[in-house]
Amino acid sequence: MLKELDLKACLPKEEYEPLMEELKPRLVTLQQEIIREKIPVIIMFEGLSAAGKGEITNFLILNFDARGFTVYNTRPPEPSELRLPWLARFMEKIPSYGRMAIFDRAWYSALPIGAQSKKELKQRLREVNTFERQLADDGYLILKYFLYIGKKEQKKRLEALRKVKNTAWRVTGGDFKNLKRHGEITDFSETLIEKTDTPYAPWHVVAATDKRYVRGAVFSSIVEGLEKALARKREKVRGEAFAPKVNPHIRPLPHGTIGQLELNKSVKEAEYRERLAECQNRLFRLQNKLYLKKIPVIVAYEGNDAAGKGGNIKRVAAALDARGYAVTPIAAPSPDELNHQYLWRFWRALPRTGHFAIFDRTWYGRVLVERVEGLTPIARINQAYNEINEFEALLARWGAVIFKFWLAIDKDEQLRRFEDRQNTPEKQWKITEEDWRNRGKWDAYTQAVDDMFRYTNTDYAPWTAVESNCKYYARLKTLETMIETLKNRL
Length: 490
Prior knowledge:
Blueprint: H1 13-37, E1 41-47, H2 53-61, E2 69-73, H3 88-91, E3 100-104, H4 118-137, E4 141-148, H5 151-163, H6 173-180, H7 182-196, E5 203-207, H8 211-237, H9 269-292, E6 297-303, H10 309-317, E7 325-329, H11 335-338, H12 344-347, E8 356-360, H13 369-372, H14 378-398, E9 401-408, H15 411-423, H16 433-439, H17 442-456, E10 463-467, H18 471-489
Parallel strand pairs: 1-3, 1-4, 2-3, 4-5, 6-8, 6-9, 7-8, 9-10
Helix pairs in contact: 1-8, 4-14, 9-18, 10-18
């Protein structure tokens, strides 16, 4: 692969100039077509130090409308970024539909040579492939370039940069240390390329000794990639479906259906008051231990309309130190959120290590409301079960404890609560015409919930169905479930 490259490959000036005259205006036109078709594009340049990543990035962007792209120069993570899943800082930077993100190094820079065990490296490479596949399934075009130079050429470039005052700052002691490890880094890079060269995000390996050759190879490849992406988009508009891709490393566990729940479980008020105080005290003590051990906790609430999610969350939050948790209510996505892959807004709301994140409705809206209301094509709904499992698996490997509560009430109890809200002035804000309309789709939502249980109940992120006709019982069950699980984790 890298060692077999013809490092003497070059593009003579008489061939280079007419090629650029053809490619440059084509890039300008293609960018505008990409914007119109709302295709998001990720272009990343990886490679050895002094291989020319910055030079090709600077030359490339001269041929794009500056309003349609953002350039990112990836540096080592900040301390605050180290307290989030390792891919979170990159997910935050993915472009919105119709825009480009150009990376001078991207997530591959977070896979430094020798820093991980073989097992950990294998897992991270698997997560990279999953990350890129999910983006590609959502319509992202991913173009990856690895620029390679030989050891003598790298040494010559580093020394030339160091001799000039204006460029000396770009060369560090680490660059010369890496020069001594040129062969080792080459072997490691070949492994990365081999394990992450996929049909949906293939690598383009470029011999980077000759700048004209690099420009010609990269520009030609980008033009080809953009043209193919536009052709694929137009085929899908005509109705082409794409099959779900199942992760073989994830196997959902059996789970009962909504119809099997005994929803009338209850507890007396006096007993509830006593147990509630005890549970809240225990959860508060556990929160402090979790903070010291830097274990993040994610609490996801879903349920029927009027099932009591807000009151349940209120009792959990009352037990916690306010500095260590955040409640995120999930409504219909904003225009900016609609312009990104649907998990993007949830990545941005993840807790730091040692903190709690409580979600009032979650990413499961993809397979619930979007499915029932027909807001998303069925092919993407079917893929979402797998994407959600992969998302939660990554969070679990990061160290998060994940709670997923479905608060269930029966149809009669919902009607009683709706009428109570409608007839009580201070509660009327809680009831909307949409709530009444959703009651007419009760059976469709029940089937969607049963499928959600069936496909996303995993050992690392299990569903807990909470019988919620009695609010007291439901609140105690969620608190006691959390306490028992967190105690076992500690």
